[in-house]
Amino acid sequence: MIMKKFWCLCLAVAALPAGFAAFGQTPEERGLEIAIAMDERDSGWRYFSADMEMILRNRAGRESRRRITNRQFEVDGDGDKSLSLFREPRDVAGTAMLTFAHGLEPDDQWLYLPAIKRVKRISTRNKSGPFMGSEIAYEDIGSPEVKKYSYRYLGDEPCGQYECYKLERHPQYEGSGYTRHISWVDKAEYRLIRIEFYDRKDALLKTMDFIGYNEYPGGYWRADRFEVTNHQTGKSTTLLWRNYDFETELHEKDFNHNALKRLR
Question: What tens digit of pLDDT does each residue of 163-185 get?
């Protein structure tokens, strides 16, 4: 979930004390400023890979587990590219998801389904649908580019062990299943701590909590666990991240929808 450099001068302003930085600003200006600072703090990593375990729970708490390899490639001047390859269990092994994130233009997404040996393009009208039975929507997978949203600063608020900015953002792209998100961003490192997602009726749909942050070479922070809870269905999804690797080189040509069938 990484954004590109659109307004580099704003980082210096965002680093000022909160009262000073907010002086004379509207909530919308301050919200955009915080979003830009988040972008700047997490740009420049180029590529990384990681292993992930996805744990799906139904309303009764029954679990199913999936193991996935993830790769991401940072793109200058556009959204990032991401690739997820399912390893286990056998019934989904070989399934692959490729996303080219953009700004206001719809993200390009392709899903390879080995059972039918077919690459399926995800249409804009299906972006709000669940990804592989999880509480993650297709639109949650792409990097949250600054231009995708409008912003409003709601104030400062404690969030667990952190002091956070509370930020509201409204999707500006076509086909979103959300009216808005409310995010808590820690002041020290501009890391996402929690997101609330509101559905098209503006009712709380789900929350996503980011837990167990660690710092990696280059000063990049990544959470070890995402907890996603659907408050309307009682279902939940846990993403457990391991083996972050920012050193092994990846190439943009590796992110090719024509090669999804050949991934191993």
Answer: 999 999 999 998 899 999 999 99
